[in-house]
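Hey L., structure's done. Input below.
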Amino acid sequence: MKYSYQIICQDLLKDSPERVKNIIERRFGLTKQNSKQETLESIGQTYGLTRERVRQIQDVALVRIREKAELKYSDVFNYFIDYIKKQGGFRREDLLFNELGKNYENNIFFLMILGEPFERLRENKDFYSFWTINKNSSDYAKKTINSFVSYLKKGEKPEPIKNFQLPSSILIKVRKSGWNKEWIKSSLEISKYILKGVDNLYGLGDWIETNPKTVRDKVYLVFKKQNKPLHFSQIPGIIEELKTSISEEPVLERNWIKPIHPQTVHNELIKDPRFVLIGRGLYVLKDWGYSPGMVKDV
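Output:
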């Protein structure tokens, strides 16, 4: 981590009156590492103030703190700007925090709130929360995402970014906003409809090949990728290998946390009609043209 964000935040607040300092620390979760950000209402109850009065105190304090930050820590803001530019002009919030300073999310959030060029777009049904230095990013990213979704649906399988060509009508507009090679990647990462699955392939979030949520789905994905008969005892190890290729995608990691045991895999293979037993513990996909008990090209 290039900067000690916690110390910087403490320095920015040290000259504030005690009540103001306490309000800002609690509002932005700066009292200690990874503190919970409190609501205006809960802070107001401590001081017998309305939530609107707490907001007024916060806003006045931020103006003064921002002036100090811009004078004393312009290098930090320039560092943030350079980082976001390299990502194409915007970055999904959780990825940004993880890359700029893991475990110091609240401190980075506070500093970016103070920085003039930074704008945070809140999470909605289509996008995850993300930060940008270009107000047009949201519209252009949406066009990029829609184009990629159409591309995926046409091919009906996950694809690497390098195979996708952004339509010229969109590319012309995006280039005016500071486009670089990371633009498409950053666009896809803020989308709730597209995920980066195994082997760095991007697909629709409800595809098994992209987002296998159950043990059965993971086993099915293993067979699709291996494209050969497998003994049930082999499958947990292959699933663990696949897990390493989605380590950069926090949205998927939740579905891959628990280790899978051979007997669990065997139970799922027995129950699921997509799989066919062709030998002692040896399974294949039914789609491959096998019948139960039939050994073919093994």
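The chain has a mean pLDDT of 89. The beta strands are 90-92, 119-121, 130-132, 194-196, 202-204, 230-231, 275-279, 282-285.

-- N.
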